[in-house]
Amino acid sequence: MAEIYSDEYWMRRAMDLAMQAQVQGEIPVGALLVADNKIIAEGYNLPITGHDPTAHAEIVALRRGGAQLKNYRLLNTTLYVTLEPCVMCAGAMIHSRIQRLVYGASDMKTGAAGSLIDILRHPGMNHQIEITGGVLGQECSTMLSAFFKQRREQHKELKKLKK
């Protein structure tokens, strides 16, 4: 009998993907699409290196999932992402018809799964998505905070060198 993996298991894989983004100088956000206890697609942030404002981890994973399944409807899938999705990503999730979203860190500034606004469960939407937030939330949040702290320090050093 195949082992059923937990949300924490999949979130750790998403965190590995986030680290790949960070290595490339991207904000460390990772996402993976899972169906029937198997990874269908993975993605991590690529807007900076790809010069593409839509290349968020979620969008990359959804696009790859559609290509893998040969269908734009990603029925009966779960999307795991290290950071609460923005409005753009939430809209893509609704259009793709994923069943469930599991995210790590909340995003009080742009979160569209309940922190700032709740697009995914808005009663006017034609599709509702089950949401589980805060899975390894502290670890995901710490990873993002460390990245932004390092980035601020790099900017300070650059300013010093220009003086």
UniProtKB/TrEMBL annotation:
Residue ranges annotated for the CMP/dCMP-type deaminase domain, each copy included: 5-116
Keywords in alphabetical order: Hydrolase, Metal-binding, tRNA processing, Zinc
GO biological process: tRNA wobble adenosine to inosine editing
Enzyme Commission number(s): 3.5.4.33
Reaction catalyzed: adenosine(34) in tRNA + H2O + H(+) = inosine(34) in tRNA + NH4(+)
Listed cofactors: Zn(2+)
Active site per UniProt: E58
Keyword Signal: no
TM regions (residue ranges): none
Annotated cofactor note: Binds 1 zinc ion per subunit.
InterPro entries linked: APOBEC/CMP_deaminase_Zn-bd, CMP_dCMP_dom, Cytidine_deaminase-like, tRNA_aden_deaminase
Single GO molecular function: tRNA-specific adenosine-34 deaminase activity
Positions that bind Zn(2+): H56, C86, C89
Top EC group: hydrolase
Pfam hit, one: dCMP_cyt_deam_1
Family named by the database record: Belongs to the cytidine and deoxycytidylate deaminase family. ADAT2 subfamily.
Role according to the record: Catalyzes the deamination of adenosine to inosine at the wobble position 34 of tRNA(Arg2).
Oligomeric form and interacting partners: Homodimer.
Name the UniProt record assigns to this protein: tRNA-specific adenosine deaminase
Species whose genome carries this gene: Xenorhabdus budapestensis
